[in-house]
Give the backbone structure.
Amino acid sequence: MRSSLALAIAAVVFAFPAAAQSRAQTESAIKGTGKYGAAGCGLGSMAFGDTPGAVQILAATTNGLFGTQTFGITTGTSNCGPGLFAMGTKNFVEANREALAKDISRGEGEAIGALTVINACGDSHKVGAALQKNFKTIFPSESASNDDVTRAILETLHGDQSLGCGKS
Amino acid sequence: MASPGAALLLFLLVASPVADVAPGGAPAAQAAPLVARARASRLAEDPGWLRLGHWRRGLRGLRSEVDGREFFLAKTGKIDPAAELEATIEGLFSPGPFAEELADPFCRFPARVAFLAARLGLDPAALPPRSCPKLDDFLARVRPGGVTLVFSSYYLNNPSSSFGHTLLRLDKAEGALEGKHFELLDYGVDYAATVDTSNAILYAVKGLFGLFKGEFKHYAYYYKVRQYGDFESRDLWEYDLALAPEETQLLARHLWELGGTWFAYWYLDENCSYHVLGALEAAAPRLDLLSHVGRAVVLPSDTVKALYANAGLVRAVHYRPSIRTQFEARARALDALELRTAVELAGRPAAPFPDALAPERRVAVLDAAQDLLDLRHGRKLVMGEDPAAAQLRQALLERRAEIPVPSVALEVPAPEVRRPDQGHGSFRAGLAGGASRAYGGYAALDGRLALHDLADPLRGYPPTAQIEFLPTRLRYYPEHQRLELDDVSLVKVVSLNPVSRWDQRPSWRMRVGATTVRDGGCAGCLAGAIELGGGLGAANLAGPVDLLALGDAELLGSPRLDGIRGAGVRLGLGPSALVRIRAGERAVLLAEARWRYLPFAVPEQTWTVSGTLRLHLARALSLALEARAAPEERDVQAGVLVYR
């Protein structure tokens, strides 16, 4: 017997509020549109379509000791890293949209650094300045789709030779 | 690495071997010499092999903690490391064909292959040719160049992670730019239960008794940053580990092996923290980690302490501030007028700047306003539930983008006093002597499984949170030969959220347990107790004073209790107040007063006043003085507390 009965009862009471949350996790996590198939970046693209923020919800609800995700290492659908340009950028935008918008408005930040690496650009400071200048083109409204945001970012990065971004 | 096989191992790992020489002869015949060598050298008893298979010696002898059948090639693999070793060698020489890549031992067990190559001289080039596209793809995506153990701090708002959480981050070999490593592009790997029930009782029971499947999973690290840092506002502590390149490579391959199987998930001990350490031990047998964590309960904070039990293992510690910490740092850099403007902007993005505010200062004010808005509405923004807040945010971001000045990167120094590796041990035991008006002198015994209360040493813990698992206080009165369970809680939580101008979250407490009643309801009887309270808290008043004022509801039950209309159940309603005064890190004074109205019960009201003074002599040793008054009792006691 690993755990005394007392401990069991403790956790029953203690875990009560958590269970409601875990239900939401389970139900949302198993939907899986598979829209981005094996090219997706992380689990979000497996489980959701293009709903803005949806990917972040999933990230937000896979929590703590009782996290729920739909796939393990063996199914490997994640793909993120330098040189992936379009797909890498899109995946990154999906999951980091709120943080990215903030960093772009500031012309600086970790999310801009990551975009610089994904798109093989030369200098994150220049990238930040260029994205900041185009903020209203990239995020014309709070409801712009992730696809449009991605497209505008790619156009900004790859349309400006001086940024030295790789070819997509 | 001093091992003579290290160079070969590294070569094999990096070169991603695919054999191109077709072997001749039957597989069994080719494997035979290696099997003989393994037997002669008793390789199956090697700690490296035992850890790769997660075999541990228990009451029933050696058993693997892995519960998935597919992790074993031998029928008796779970309990027989030698049989598994031989089956692995034979499997590697099997020419196939295999139903799928993961049925091929060579692709399924790359860490075992590396181990056998290094320790037994297995030559992958002599194996039948095969390809492992999924494995190669995994390794190509992860490209591990380093390993970091990440601790996400305590989160009281979700019981399942109120003790914190640990995961591994596989740091990409490249991706560095301008001398910086971009962690957002790394991979995180953690071990978590796959929850398959929506029933709260089942959920808890299954978690406690190992009925969930626990699995290793990997994902882009930025999911965790977004989740913990932004969504839940939890600071992250990142411990970079000094692993040799071949150990890092072996870890990635071993995680691949574990990713395809499962363990029974035990909430208390074989949990996320336990198996993360187990995987590290398997990749680097020189490490000794699991022997440094508790037997009954393994807490995430124990894992970071276990790292430090291995000299030189932690290369560097990084701190990733949550959105709350970021905002607080930005707010500190503003003067009063600027801060007022930032708070105003967070609610009304078009609000005017004060005259003569220079562009750099406007940037600082806007950046603080953005963080405040995210702190207030972050969850709903991410969920798309608050269109009004989303519009606010868009307007604020547009306003910020109009000033073509890049923000200065925010540097938040790591708060050393919160470092989880420096906290006191979570298990506590105490011995005290005291005197009670009702029963005379007594000896008191204090025990607690985990984790921290408001009077414990503050270092390494959140400053205003208490979370305890099974705190128990026993008393023995020799004059009356009376043994008494003074108080016990299955779980006890106090969440003091200091109120500030931008944070009005309520404070709360809850506990479930039993207590000895000290009033006319039934003097000296033991009653089950459930208690829930909510109110407001304040911290750092005049420096060292913290306050908490609550309205409580308490339910007591005992057959001897003169409760509601004579029944054995009694409801108590009323206020309580708690004051804590800190004297540096060495002393804490905690005082508490409660008053309860007891509807339809005898007596009609009750109260308690108590005070605790703790002197923290060392990380593991404190002195405790306590005094308490209640209608039918006055007592004082003094003793020592030991943490480990």
Summary: Residues 1-83 of chain A have pLDDT under 50 and may be disordered.
